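Re: the pair you flagged

First of the two:
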Amino acid sequence: MRISPLFLLFPFLAFAQNTLPTFDGVVNPEEWSSAEKHTIEYEISPGNNTPSPVATEAYITYGVSDLYVGFIAYADMSTLRSSIRNRDEGYQDDFVMIGIDTYGDGRYMVSLGANAEGNQLDLKFLPSGNDDTSYNVSYESKASKHQDAYHVELKIPFSVLQFKNKPTVKWNILLYRSTYTADSRSQNINFPIDLNNPCLACQTPVSLTLNNIKAKNRVEFLPYVYGGLSGEREDNTLKFGKFNKTIGLSGLVDLNNVTSLEYAINPDFSQVEADASRIVANNTFAIAFPERRAYFNEGNDIISSNLRTVYTRSINQPLLSTKLISQGEHDRIYWLAAYDEASPYLIGGENGSYFGEGTAAYSSIFKYQRTYKQGTNISFISTNRFFKEKGSGHIFGLSGLWRLGENITAELEINKSFTKEPNADWIDEANEDNDIISGKTVALDGENLRGDGLYFSLERNTKNWNTELEYSQKSPLYQTPLGFVTQNNVRALEFEQGYQHFFKEDAFLKQMNFSLETEFRFNYQGLKKYSSVDAGAYVQFSGNVESFAGYSHVLNEEYEGFDAKGMDNFELFVRFNPSEKIQLRAFTSIGESIFYVESAVGNNFFIGTFNSFQVTSQLRISPSFRYTHLKNKEDGSYYLKGYIGRLNVNYQFNKTLSFRIIGEYNDFDEAFFYQPLFKWNPNPFTIFYIGGTNGYSRIDNQSRFSIDNSQIYMKFQYLFSL
């Protein structure tokens, strides 16, 4: 069984509504005397159900409308890792969480917690074993520090959880604590886990029975005002346009305790923080960025897929959108509709992808999922986009996840795509090169296209061994109008065998994982596009040191008639986290790869470092640096060479108020920017910020830089609940 880096995790609990404790961040056992008491006493990483290095007590009780959870986390307070942070940034600290499966079928587990400062952490633990850290709900948390422990209290409204509306409900509960010893990060839960069972949420032996609880139907309004001023350089002068101001409204209405309707009218989906630049100098395929917009994050676990059928950032500038999510006892429904004023257009090819900015479009995503025990499910999905330019795109698909016995999981996805191209010049490179895919032009000239996508995987997990087989295919004309598919005309087969070994508690080595993988890719004409054999080893050492070493032998890689063979690559990653104040990460790789512009094999090298220094409990400095080059094998000249340096400085006044400044220099573009931001963020949805961005580039043939663009902006968004 593969262990997620975040585990959350309770014999049968049944108790009536009792006298509620004072919610003040201090867990007084007398106040919690009527609550059920439990302990977190099993270390699951790096140990394997070994005794936890520190004691943790947990208390659970409830009222009519809220669930109350209290933790007493014992620790050496002189070495406790805990700083004041923004929401969802405390995963590197000592923290506690409770996981709640309101349906008891393993479809997901809502996991809520806090660190010793009371900074909130929330996520969804999914049946695939992954964590959805973009998930956010509104709940209260308070914390306090004592001589030999810290206390955390959580007050969780039943209204933020979806569950069956019955006089008596039964939920599965898991308890979790992450802490640090002198040797390693220690992950602990309240029961021993079975590594032969891939469904962690299904293993909990503890259920919570609640009687006569009420979940108030939420009616929420989220209005915002935004203002900004931007300028660009013209004739060596920075010229500003008119002050841009806008207002909008979004909100949520609970139709009942399992169904919610969200809406957004002229929403502002600008990001608080710019995406970190990536090195793409020798990449022929489009690159995806994570979804950071809160409106789209709820329900992500329903629409996630291995074929990347849905990529919500493809809905770029919606003027109006609605979203309905229903979580029934055996059914889940996701339905989103939007009118998008500027829709991106992506076409996957065999050797690269084509991208353009489209015009307005009507978009919709619908998915129905039937759920069963152990996270098993069967789904139907439909995505549709209709451009005002008369073009359209549609996907219809079936998918499922099945638990076959105790330790085998199978997944299957089948999609059919139907595309009617608009007559438009959105993709410049397609018009210039006149590229052809399976007899159809890449240029958008009104052609009708049909395609299919298929994914199948079979995975077996045991305590020490993990085996996975994956097969996928995407036909030449397959397109996902609201997804992110960058390569088509490909059939891929992958096989991976992994082994993990646990050591004794006092050993220098804490955990070791080995993997061996092979991959083959062919196009639909039978041409072998890529084949490789890879090996890797992950080792966790005493002293909070982790390392990964990998070797890849590329048997062949074909690109536009050029077939490179026998390319070797080595990579090494090291992480050193001796204390809360220092976290160092370094990565390097060396080997051979194709320079696609000239269809030649060169010698590549990459080195990067990503670090964090907690100077005080409120000040964090995070520098990063990435350098790469690709050299001509014959004369040593550079096909490409450059680096990206980035610095993030964050000062946290308290857990809701912060100031940060980001600076980044991109040597490939010979440009840099800096971005200051002052932010107040008391809950996941209310926010006020004011900031700006200045971008600079090098003046031709000079060492000086000149400002290219400048922007000042502010936004105030406030959540009203009725």
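Second of the two:
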Amino acid sequence: MKTKVLIMLFFITTTVILCQNKSSFIDTSKQINLENYNYYELDVKFDKKSNQMIASQRLIWKNNSIKPLYSLPFKLNYNNVDSLIDTVIVNGIGCHFEKRTINTNNYDGFEVILDKPIEPNKECIIKINFKTDEAYNEKDKEIAFYNFWFPSLLFFEKGIFYPEKQLLFNSRMNISYPKKYKIVLTGLTESSYENMGIINVKSYAKEVTGFGIILSKNYLVEEDTVNNIIIKSYYFEDDKKWGHKILEYAKDIVKFYIDTIGFYPQPILSIVPGADYPMGGFPVATNIVCIHRGLDNLKDKAERHAHWITAHEIGHQYWGFNYILEPLDYPHWFGISMGIYTDRLYAKSRKTDETIYDEKFLTPYLGGVLSEINTTIMQTVDTLNKQKIDWNNIIVHGKSYTALELLSNEIGEDVFFKVFKYCIENYKGVNVTFDMFVNTCENISKMDLKNFFNQWYLSNAVLDYRIKDVKITKQDSIKKVLIKIIKNGDAVVSKITVGIKLNNDSLIKLVVNEKGDEFQVEYFTNLGVSEVIIDPDKELPLLIHAENNFDIINKAGNFLRNTGKFNEIIKLYQSLQFDKTLESYWYYIAFSYGHIGNYQAAIENYQHVLDMINSKLLSPDREKAEFFKKSTLLNMGIIYSQMGKNTDAVDCFNKVLLLVTSSSDKEYINQLIKELQ
């Protein structure tokens, strides 16, 4: 039986609260320093009968502005706020509240309307009793609670509440839950005891942006320590091998980060399993990261992926989410890119396969460029959502890291590492803005970088340099090679490499300083020249690299398919020059013709796919060829049925039946045949 996470309770908040009159469960021997950070308390009980969390919170908050406040806005990510909030009491007076929509990252919430304003420099005591929405429960297999499950007061500064800003805080929490569950927490456990089948845990966390709780009946766990950092790997029985491997990876990764950066930001790290397909992972909450399952599906790339994604997600504990922060009205361009830079430091030190960085980041970015998506980094989340594009991969991960690599090349790797260290040492708990990052880079590099940031962060400029002309002249035994380079795109770089391949198979690399829209370079040799290549090591995100890489072209096709732009797919595929012996090239053209209703062209291109596949069924690519054959025959059958050619359609479906093995696939195909008879 497939096992899943049973209860996931993620708590990521920007609460601004101070505490007095501590509740009974606080252990004063481990008193948190409240001088620099806000503090909150919660009592939380999981009610299995109703599949809800029942909770109460108490906070003391001070209006440190110069004007009175007549309302207090809270985040709470549920639609039915009226039925979930039991009572809101401010300074002993029950208060009315109204549902509100908070635009930043689409969080819902409510606003407490105060009968009596909170005067400047006055404190108020806020008590809220509430419950979460009823959790989804399928035969007691999976129960999930998501972000902002409890009311959290917005960030407050100079008389204004900011929903987009994050905040570090301290917390203590009392949690009770049935004994049959295992628990994963953001905080360290102070104490735990059982009473009549109920586990009661007291936990505390310092300087965090969120407090996560995950409960599961089926977790197994391995634990170890590195430099006094507790590392726990949770897994299901059928993932025991990977649970152990990921723990070993994590130990080495955390040690490297401590040695390189100087510290690890928290005393505990928990790694939990995610979805059944190895899509990657994500930072669940402070001190909790998720690695998606199904790693064996990646076959010979499984260990490479698992090692990288573990380093990647642990790197997030420093940047953008939990330690160094950034405003949430823009995508995590800063935290994501600096986190990727962090895990690449680890990859370089361990000499692991770094091609994954092109696959995961450069390919989506250039795919977005080919599909003519606006890749400007500094667009608000609301603006990006309206475009209905995969901006998380194209822009946040793809372009933001590509731009960071270009920045490192521009100012020098050693100088950029100083920028990296400065941010780590000076921006703890700070919401880093675009202007702050630009100023930091300029101050440390002593360079004017405004043009660089304008073109790579504030615009949709594309880097497009090409070889325009190569002339070879001979004088005596020496050949003069004159290479003309043209700049077609709006983006520029200060230097670019040209490769000259000689007829003895050696490759000469010349670094050329960029000099406008058209410039040239000379080289003298007594050997013949077989080829001239721009950026031979593919260090730059040049448009010409994208046009000659089918992985990038296919990524662009995926982006266009997701937005229903099938005519654009056909135009893109047919306009580019690359290896057209790939069956996937013809398959996606056929697929697109089918979607725009040009059925005859679709059939012709699908038939071309079948002709190519038949020669590969006995080759090492047999598995891939079989996949395309099944998909092609199925799509041909569907198109024939739409054309009214039922006999041809049934013939295709019968051929598919000979290829599929699962009962569900056979049932689906037989149903298609039945509908045509």
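The longest strand covers residues 107-118.

-B.
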